[in-house]
Design a protein that fits this description.
Layout (H helix, E strand, L loop, with lengths): L4 E3 H8 L3 H9 L6 E3 L2 E5 L3 H13 L4 H31 L1
Antiparallel strand pairs: 1-3, 2-3
């Protein structure tokens, strides 16, 4: 078995998260869940995002639609930041 997978039920138990929340995130395409031998797993690479979504949902009372909107805005900001960085590098070439 791969070591970079986290059993969703274990995560939910340890972090006091309702498993239905994870299923909603998966249904909306915010996280990817893997099923192996009828057990549901989350790739460890998505743990930071899941923790961010959990904070937004449980601590700030933001619903799934709001989390989805925030996710898309953060992706757009990251894209724009990379573009600005690239343009600055190009500008530096001409100086």
């Amino acid at each position: 078995m791969q070591t970079d997978l986290i059993i969703i039920n274990d995560f939910c138990d340890r972090c006091h998260v309702d498993p239905s929340f994870i299923m909603e995130l998966e249904e909306d395409g915010l996280i990817e869940v893997q099923v192996i031998d009828e057990e549901r797993y989350l790739p460890a690479s998505q743990l930071a995002e899941l923790e961010r979504y959990t904070h937004l949902y449980y601590d700030l009372s933001i619903n799934i639609a709001g989390i989805d909107a925030i996710h898309h805005m953060l992706e757009r900001i990251e894209l724009l930041q990379r573009e600005v960085h690239s343009l600055r590098n190009e500008l530096g070439f001409y100086k």
